[in-house]
Amino acid sequence: MNIQHGGNLDQAKKLFPEVTGSWLDLSTGINPYSYPFSSLDISLYEKLPSYSHEENLRQIAADYYGCKNKSCVALAPGTQILISLMPTVLNAKEVYVLYPTYEEYISSWWQAGVKVTRVVNFEDFETLCLQKNVVGVICNPNNPDGRKIDMARLESLIKKWSASGNHLILDEAYMDFSGQSMAYLLPSPGLLVLRSFGKTFGLAGLRVGFLLASPEIVQRIRYMLGLWPVNGPALHIAAEALQDGLWKIETEKKLRIQQKRLDAFLQSHSFNLVGGTLLFRLFYHRSANDIWKHLASHGIWVRKFDYNPNWLRFGLLYRQADWQRLEAVLLSIS
């Protein structure tokens, strides 16, 4: 499967070689306000990550995400590797994915030889747990449209899947500014929750992710990832960031301002809002592909979707110079 992702500026430069200046990358859902972590001691780069620092971050993550016990937390170098490992960890004859959503889930199971069925509405999804040996996948909030399922309804679904002896994977990569995690239900044997650190804290290059699941599944993942799954500097930065509640509160305020500004601006240019989160916004426009080409030819990279050519996803921006650049390029469309 050839899956397109945000942030692929190498592809942008290849497709639009006429762009010689800097690119404005609005194709991702990464927080533009990066966490201002403290300076790090050089020894963190010189030595192997310590077991005590890993255990410390596991407990901090357990408290932050609401599962309380670190036995329900596995550290990983980003969530992508966790997605790739799911077919190895969970034995399934068929996987049901609430769709449209993040395509890597479909790809990972398909490559493992497991039948994947796309389910387009939640009502149908609720009945599928009655089968044997199946896995469900839901991104909540969803990427790319921001769809969010009511907590009571989701809790009921999780309990049904667990009672049937099946597993439900919840990808909560964009939950930090959207509400409460379902991890409080752990150690429910049928629930697996994936959380992204880099998107929320604007530090995607650190490659830090978390799996929240039953102790048995967590232990299997930890064995698969082996020693030192996260580098020493990343362990320290993540531990500091997850405990900085004030930064999160202040950053959420700033994101809401930029989100409202982006919505109003694009709607004034005949875009219709489909949905989104505080880290990305999805819009409909009947000329979306032409607009995508025009933006890209001027060095502005946004996310388009092959399965819906009328959709464009924009990440948030905050620098005034970037706003002026986006405004000028959209105004130049004839």
UniProtKB/TrEMBL annotation:
Domain called Aminotransferase class I/classII large: residue spans: 45-315
Cofactors (names): pyridoxal 5'-phosphate
Gene Ontology annotations of biological process type: cobalamin biosynthetic process
Transcription regulation listed as a keyword: no
Entry keyword Lyase: yes
Pathway field: Cofactor biosynthesis; adenosylcobalamin biosynthesis
Stored CDD domains: AAT_like
Molecular function per GO: pyridoxal phosphate binding; threonine-phosphate decarboxylase activity
EC number: 4.1.1.81
Reaction it catalyzes: O-phospho-L-threonine + H(+) = (R)-1-aminopropan-2-yl phosphate + CO2
Protein name: threonine-phosphate decarboxylase
Phylogenetic lineage: Bacteria, Pseudomonadati, Pseudomonadota, Alphaproteobacteria, Acetobacterales
